[in-house]
Description:
By secondary structure, this protein is an alpha+beta fold. The chain has one domain (5-137). Helices cover 40% and strands 14% of the residues. It has helices spanning 5-11, 24-34, 48-53, 59-64, 67-79, 82-90, 131-137, and strands at residues 18-21, 41-44, 107-112, 115-121. The strands form 2 sheets. It has a two-stranded parallel sheet. Strand 3 and strand 4 form a beta hairpin. The protein is globular and about 40 Å long. The mean pLDDT is 85.
Amino acid sequence: MNRDAVPALDAAGVKLLxxxxxxxxxxxxxxxxNAFPIEKLYxxxxxxxxxxxxxxxxxxxxxxxxxxxxxxxxxxxxxxxKTLLGVLKRWKPWLPPKPDQGYQQGGSFVFRGSExxxxxYDVSTGAHAPLEDILKAAGVQIPSPN
Length: 146
């Protein structure tokens, strides 16, 4: 996530929450590696949140969709996949609590109370909603880098 997004969300009164598969211990590793606020990260060891939101899961959705290589190529064309390569340098092998969680796709949502303002279901690995779309749905403008 753009490092300016969290303060911009806070300033706009938008509450950011990230739900991840895995354990609290692994969440702490993520927070440490990414300088992400721990109070905004929730570990979902059972994938209950993913199931409730109807997020995609399976081998086909993880690796076999054409959007997986397309999203990696788009990152490469944009900036040489600098962010992705930076993450891979620090990546540590890890097995999730439930073996099938390795095939879990995520999504991005903006809620106002019980109303869903924005919903995007990741089609495959690496195919995520554009940050600009998420922020626009939340009514947030990120300052342009100078």
